[in-house]
Each structure stands twice: as C-alpha cells, then as structure tokens.
Amino acid sequence: MAHRIYTTSFASVYPLYVAKAERKGRTKEEVDTIIEWLTGYDETGLARQIADEVDFDTFFASAPHLNEDRSLIKGVVCGVRVENVEEPLMREIRYLDKLIDELAKGKKMEKILRGGQS
C-alpha cells in the first residue's frame, strides 16, 4: 500500500516548509532555491506545480532534473536515516525534508546545496 504522503498535494506541504524556515529567520526564496536545486524546477515550473496542486508522486515524477548530488544528503530526519530509505519516492521526500531541516538549523546555503555543485 502506498504511503499517504505520496497522494498528498505538494502545495499543502510547501507552506509548512516555508513557515519552518521563516520561524528560524530564513526565507521563502531559500526554500525555493533548495527545491529548485533538488528537482531542477525553475521558478515558473515550481509555481506551476504548486498552483496545479500536484501530489508528491507527480511532483517528483515530473521533476525536470533530479540533482545527481542528492545522494550526498545524509543524516536523520523524522527518526529515519535518509540514505537508508529504500523506497525511491520516499527517499526523494526525505531528501527534501532533510534539506529544509538543515536550512532551519542555520546551515549555510552552500553546505545545504552540497558545496554548490549541481
């Protein structure tokens, strides 16, 4: 059975990512930069995905270019070690969660974006 998050609209979770970042003095622009780095969406493409209220499955399946450096994302989020998540879609979602966590914890953008490499 597919996890409930797969059919959850990305647009419903996106404001939570932004709020988490802003509570820690970070910005919506930084959240967008992280999402764009991870997925290859540009500003317009990201806005379209949000406006169309696509689910997480569609959001990642439609991503223009999943960043090859995302495999460098390591660590624990929600009690789960991201590099050990076997289900591909859940791993992508956990990667995004981990990057937003790092932003909220005050990490520098170049470190979050794995040295700025893409």
UniProtKB/TrEMBL annotation:
Species in which this protein is naturally found: Exiguobacterium aestuarii
InterPro entries recorded: SP1917_dom_sf, UCP033199
Pfam family, one: DUF2200
Protein name, as recorded: DUF2200 domain-containing protein
Alphabetical list of Gene3D superfamilies matching this protein: uncharacterized protein sp1917 domain
